[in-house]
Amino acid sequence: MMQLPRLKDAASARKVLRRAFELGVDHFDTAHFYAGGVANTYLAEELGSEQGVVIVTKVGARPPKRGPMPMVPAQRPEELRQEVLDNLRSLRTDRPDVVNMRRIAPGTYPLTPKQKVDFDDQMAEMVAMREEGLIGAIGLSAVSLTELRRALPLGVVCVQNQYSLTSRKQEEVLDLCRAEGIAWAPFFPLGGAFPGSAKVVHEPVVQEIARELGATPMQVGLAWLLHHADNALLIPGTTSVAHLEQNVAAGAIKLDDQAMANLDTVNPVGGIRGFVSRLRS
After folding, report:
1. Which residues are catalytic?
2. Cα–Cα distance measured from residue 198 to residue 218, given in angstroms and rounded to the nearest whole number
């Protein structure tokens, strides 16, 4: 399970993808707005013909021309549809397995009036595209507990929210996913993605347990997620074969009850909302 690397070097990108597949990775998280379709193209060229590969792409944003944020909202139903068509083209497929709708709710991000879209209108478009055969299944990203509850009757197979040992504000959403048999694919699984958000690998207890186990702090952080959520699909991004191999090896790390209890004492802080509030100030 991995997030597709945003590499501009085609040979390096294909090497990482091929090695991931050799190691048994079969779930690839991508989006057309990663480098304007480049990431999708590498995935299609290297693994598009392989059996058993599950491609999960994302809509709801487009790449920015400039600025500190890695995306620009594209939330309107017609934009969601166009992004699906863009993904179909760059992935060279008739239908991706799963499409995550990246929700950007008013109040969570500086939105223009045209981008303040009702969640039900977005879901109606996603369901329409599923019924038309343009997408396989519907997933959600950055969704609230209330929104997820509203979407459940429509059929949701996975949720991709920000979550890690140091960022656990989405615990109620995770609990609902567990109860409903929905896959949990947390983004920023090691924290530290924005200024002010804590990095899992910097936590003293993570470093101590890593030394005891002969593992890296990164591996301990990923192992905690797998132990904490049995419905977790991890998507740590990487551009390195060596880091990829370390990520995959984290799945074999066993954390006993005491280790988990010690890790659970980490105070979860930071997150994307705090970063956005600083952008506004």
Report:
1. 34
2. 13
Phi, psi values for residue 74, rounded to 5°? -140, 75
Q: Which residues of 112-140 are buried (b: 16+ CB within 10 A; e: fewer)?
A: eeebebebeebbebbeebbeeebbbbbbb
Query: Which homologous superfamily does the CATH classification assign to the domain defined by 2-280?
Result: NADP-dependent oxidoreductase domain (3.20.20.100)
What's the pTM?
A: 0.89
The C-alpha R_g of the chain, in whole angstroms, comes to 18
What local confidence, expressed as pLDDT, does residue 3 receive? Answer: 52
Sign of the Cα torsion 250, 255, 259, 263 reads: positive
Structure tokens at 152: 């459940």
Which burial class, exposed, middle or buried, applies to 242 when counting CB atoms under 10 A from its CB (0-12, 13-18, 19+)? exposed
Query: Tokens 């480098």 identify what position?
Result: 35
The two three-digit tokens of residue 95, written as one number = 């239908």
Nearest to 143 by CA among 165, 166, 126, 129: 126
Taking alpha carbons only, the member of 221, 158, 233, 215 closest to residue 191 is 221
- Cα dihedral: 208, 257, 27, 195 (round 10): -40
Two tokens, residue 139: 């997933």
pLDDT tens for residues 208-225?
999 999 999 999 999 999
